[in-house]
Write a structure and sequence with these properties.
The structure holds two protein chains of two kinds.
Chain A: E1 2-3, H1 7-20, H2 32-38, E2 43-50, E3 52-61, E4 64-75, E5 83-91, E6 97-115, E7 125-140, E8 149-166, E9 169-190, E10 193-213, E11 230-244, E12 255-272, E13 275-297, E14 305-311, E15 317-332, E16 340-341, E17 344-351, E18 354-356, E19 359-361, E20 363-369, E21 380-397, E22 400-420, E23 423-425, E24 428-430, E25 433-446, E26 449-454, E27 478-494, E28 497-515, E29 523-543, E30 546-550, E31 553-566, E32 572-573, E33 576-584, E34 587-591, E35 599-605, E36 617-622, E37 638-648, E38 660-673, E39 676-702, E40 708-714, E41 716-731
Antiparallel strand pairs in A: 1-2, 2-5, 3-4, 4-6, 5-6, 6-7, 7-8, 8-9, 9-10, 10-11, 11-12, 12-13, 13-14, 13-15, 14-20, 15-16, 15-17, 17-21, 18-19, 20-21, 21-22, 22-25, 22-26, 23-24, 25-27, 27-28, 28-29, 29-30, 29-31, 30-34, 31-32, 31-33, 33-36, 34-35, 35-38, 36-37, 37-39, 38-39, 39-40, 39-41
Chain B: H1 2-24, E1 29-30, H2 34-40, E2 47-55, E3 79-84, E4 91-113, H3 124-127, E5 129-135, E6 139-152, E7 164-177, E8 181-184
Antiparallel strand pairs in B: 1-8, 2-4, 3-4, 4-5, 4-6, 5-8, 6-7
The chains are: A mainly beta, B alpha+beta.
Chain lengths: ~725, ~190
């Protein structure tokens, strides 16, 4: 059938919507020459109503296979229906083949992904529902020779959906809009290497992320289900790929990839209930060298099979930089107006092989079937090793900068991913939502210190301490751990509609936190650290001018076996410190100071009265006896115990809503110091509480043979009406 | 995790500072000689802190609630710390704490003391270990800084049967020159 080209109308409709988003700058209009090329041409129209299935699709390297099973194509709305595809093919006067496409109501699904050794396990099922139209043009001649090809394409996806399901629980990106404008992509093959250059404009709007139960992927309107909020991403980038065969790390078969990407411009928005966190004016670059992809055996003694992405060869590296001109919290999600700025950030990174504490680390991920073993057969497991050899983070507020310099990170272990429900299975409690689990992870990070200067000069400033002032925010000079297990489960829905509800459990063993650390290795160390923490029903949402986090119930125990000064392992010790925490409805609002750039946190910490073993308790133990190896034995020394620490509203009514309220403001500013005016790292803390009580202060004597005696030193302590404000400016020691 | 994290980590910082203060009373005070100072240069772990701490500048969170913190003439306006020594007994109180303490050039670092160090009455070789060194700020200023030591029948001034005897009131103002370092020695192996 011959008829005039109509598919331009498909893409014109998409283009109009694309322009209407107002988010994308560069648009490819068809010029007169292109239109002239179209005029008078005739093509072929193919109209399809289709339904198809494939039992299995496999990819093998070195005799190891990964298998996509139960692949189905059909209707998104009707389980028995067919998807619709219209194609229009035209040959243009310059020899280009142009394909117009219009896909309506199509669902593509993969029932499971497994590897040869997966047994009954599967990675879970994936599906995509889409309405998509646009055009695609192939022109002979690439960037390097006439034998290559040039591609131009524009397509839009509207009202689409992407889902992931494990064990009857599904999480899906809902109401997805995407525009892709690919102009002059070139494909060449040179000396057996595929060279692909891809300048691309991308706009992606994920309106909602929702959860549903059921073995069958959802169909139809799902807008009544709670949402985690939405994302908008707008990017203009150029990626250049070199792809070759030539073998993986474990045999002659596999894919080798080098990839360079330049991000010309980008914006990012996370939004809930009409407010957003916006990262604007992003630009940067990334270079990946010698990434290899194959199906192979992982780095553990079990040699488990996985789809391997390895960046751990002698010449392997991933390095890059990212500049974010402005980070604003609590903007109007539609107009992007308002909100508070926390300043601008520049990041740089280099991932490559390194040796830490005598142990060699590289960068590699093995994707396996099966997540948490108790959740069911379906899920994903990422056996991972990472090695960040050098990174820097520069944060600029009001024309002054702080550089967190010489950051290294390393580690290895398994991360599991499941979609789970509210149920106990095989003795493990699961929660509704996307569960990210940590299974036997060891690792850590450390930094040289900070450098403070006016914008653009921080790199040349003297390195100093000061990150210690951010320990309240979880920023340490160094933190490492021998083992971490636990989970975070993210559930759609917050306290006011869109938002994220979080349940988590975390267990850390053999940890160590460092502060005031020196190049020589001496410092102050919270050593032999173990930690157990639990959070129930914590919610996160974007609100006007900020990001709000409210804990439901949280309890934790941190046990520092030795607080050392000097060497991390052999420094002399102040003894052991144990800190138990228990609170309900504590709150944190992250925002920027009004009228200027900086980071401001409003924290409300409710210290609840003891309930069973959940309590606020501080213990300091010294004089412990040691075992044959000279290690002090906990519970054998003299202990000072501050028990049942709790806040109160102080009016005798038993209310406990005020808590300890702290406003913490951090920025970089010129300040008076012992060396005169100079740029400094500034932390303002304003703490208020109505009443903070210590139920009892006890002295506990242990005789080393399991017997203990307790003497009460203070029957109670009550601190009332506290309003304390401090300003600290950190500069190098003159 | 965020709240869980920040509260724990804040504890760590607090613990270090609290221990520092607790140990301060027994730490040796020594001036650093030029030789000592020359040994310090080149370290990058430490920091110099300048700033201020203010207590109850405009009253506290209980102000205006008729529970004894109303900031009127002759009334309590500052913070109150009460401790009970004996069950059923009275309370010893540090009351009406308020005012500002400013300082410039307080340094915080770790330091290795060896036999090469002078100024410890010849004992440096016996120490032979790292210590936390707090370099006292050269200049410090108290502004309207005051507190009252008292004994009281109840923890709260708003409680029934509240009776209090003020024993001592301290008011501080003006500049101080502080010189030297506080060295905090860990004592466990």
């Amino acid at each position: 059938m011959m008829k005039p080209v109509l598919h331009r109308w498909f893409s014109a409709a998409g283009m109009a919507l694309y322009a209407a988003t107002g988010q994308v700058g560069a648009m490819e209009a068809m010029d007169d020459a292109e239109l002239a090329g179209v005029q008078g041409q005739a093509g072929v129209t193919v109209e399809m109503a289709h339904k198809a299935s494939m039992d299995r699709f496999s990819y093998f390297t070195n005799d190891n296979g990964i298998h996509l099973e139960d692949i189905q194509v059909g209707s998104a709305s009707d389980p028995d229906g067919r998807g619709r595809r219209d194609y229009e093919l035209d040959l243009l006067s310059d020899g280009s083949l142009e394909i117009g496409l219009d896909i309506q109501d199509e669902r593509v699904s993969v029932g499971g992904i497994s590897l040869d050794d997966s047994g009954a396990r599967s990675m879970g099922s994936f599906w995509m529902d889409r309405d998509m139209n646009g055009w695609f043009r192939i022109t002979p001649g690439g960037a390097l020779s006439e034998e290559g090809y040039t591609f131009n394409s524009f397509f839009s996806m509207l009202d689409s959906r992407f889902g992931y399901q494990t064990n009857g629980h599904q999480l899906f990106l809902d109401d997805v809009t995407m525009f892709v404008n690919a102009s002059d992509h070139t494909l060449d093959v040179e000396n057996g290497v595929i060279q692909y250059v891809a300048p691309t404009d991308l706009y992606l709007d994920i309106a909602a992320i929702r959860y549903a139960e059921g073995e069958t992927p959802v169909r139809g309107d799902q807008s009544s289900r709670p949402s985690m909020g939405g994302f908008e991403i707008d990017q203009d980038f150029v990626s250049e790929f070199e792809i070759s065969g030539g073998g993986g790390r474990q045999g002659p078969e596999g894919i080798r990839v080098n990839a360079d990407t330049t991000l010309n411009s980008g914006d990012f928005l996370y939004k809930t209930n009409g407010y957003g966190v916006e990262l604007s004016g992003m630009s940067g670059s990334s270079a990946v060298q010698d990434l290899r992809i194959e199906v192979g055996e992982d780095f553990t003694a079990e040699a488990r099979q996985g789809l391997a992405f390895t960046l751990n060869g002698d010449g392997s590296s991933a390095q890059g930089s990212l500049s974010i001109d402005d980070i604003r919290l609590g903007v109007d999600a539609g107009s992007r107006d308002g909100g508070r700025s926390i300043g601008s950030v520049n990041l740089s990174w280099l991932y490559e092989n390194q040796t830490i504490n005598g142990d060699a680390f590289g960068n590699q991920v093995y994707l396996m079937a099966g997540g948490h073993p108790d959740a069911g057969d379906e899920g994903m497991r990422f056996a991972s090793e990472w090695s960040l050899a050098d990174a820097g983070l520069t944060w600029t507020t009001n024309g002054n900068s702080v550089l967190f310099d010489g950051i290294q990170s390393w580690g290895r272990g398994d991360v599991t991913v499941n979609v789970t429900g509210n149920e106990e299975l095989e003795g493990t409690q699961f929660y509704k939502g996307l569960r990210v689990g940590f299974d036997g992870i060891s690792g850590g990070y450390r930094m040289d210190g900070i450098r403070v200067g006016s914008e653009g000069s921080a790199e040349g400033a003297e390195v100093q301490a000061g990150a210690e002032l951010l320990s309240a925010l979880g920023v340490f000079r160094s933190f490492e751990f021998g083992n971490m297990d636990g989970q975070y489960t993210l559930t759609p829905g917050g306290p006011n509609g869109d938002g994220i509800t979080i349940n988590s459990d975390l267990y850390i063993e053999d940890g160590r936190i460092g502060s005031l650390t020196e190049e020589s290795g001496q410092g102050v160390w919270a050593d032999d650290l173990s930690y157990e923490g639990h959070i129930r029903d914590m919610t996160l949402e974007v609100v006007q001018d900020g990001l709000r986090v409210v804990q439901g119930e949280a309890w934790s125990t941190m046990d520092v076996g030795n607080l050392r000064v000097g060497g991390a392992e052999d420094g002399a010790s102040f003894g052991r410190i144990v800190w138990q925490r228990y609170g309900q409805d504590s709150e944190m609002v992250i925002t920027g100071p009004e009228g200027q750039e900086g980071l401001k946190l409003a924290l409300t910490s409710i210290f609840s009265e003891a309930v069973g073993d959940k309590r606020n308790r501080f213990l300091w133990e010294t004089g412990r006896t040691t075992d044959a190896e000279g290690n002090p034995q906990n519970g054998t020394g003299m202990q000072l115990v501050l028990d049942n620490i709790h806040t109160s509203d102080g009016l005798g009514a038993g209310n406990n809503d005020f808590g300890v309220q702290t406003e913490l403001t951090v920025d970089v500013r010129e300040a008076d110091s012992a060396d005169g005016m100079q740029p400094s790292f500034h932390v303002n803390t304003h703490t208020r509480f109505r009443e903070l009580n210590v139920g009892r202060v006890n002295l506990v004597h242990n005789d080393g043979s399991g017997n203990s005696s307790t003497a009460t030193a203070l029957q109670g302590v009550s601190i009332q009406n506290m309003d304390m404000e401090s300003n600290l400016n950190a500069t190098p020691i003159p | 995790m965020a709240i869980q994290g920040y509260s724990i980590r804040r504890f760590m910082a607090t613990a270090v500072v609290a221990l520092g203060c607790a140990s301060n009373a027994v730490a040796e005070m020594e001036s650093m000689s030029d030789q000592d100072l020359s040994g310090v240069s080149g370290q990058y772990g430490g920091m110099s802190l300048s700033g201020d701490v203010t207590f109850n500048e405009s009253g506290g969170p209980l102000k205006g609630e008729a529970v004894g913190f109303d900031c009127g003439e002759g009334e309590r306006c500052g913070a109150r710390i009460a401790a009970q020594l004996n069950q059923g007994g009275g309370w010893i109180v540090l009351d009406d704490l308020q005012g500002t303490f400013e300082f410039m050039g307080l340094t915080l670092a770790t330091r290795l003391i060896t036999g090469d160090d002078t100024g410890f009455g010849g004992d440096a070789a016996d120490f032979n270990r790292e210590v936390i060194e707090i370099g006292l700020p050269e200049t410090a200023r108290f502004t309207d800084f005051s507190y009252t030591m008292a004994t009281s029948s109840t923890a709260r001034p708003g409680d029934s049967d509240f009776r209090q005897v003020d024993r001592l009131t301290v008011e501080m103002g003006g500049d101080m020159t502080l010189d030297g370092n506080a060295l905090i020695f860990p004592t466990e192996p």
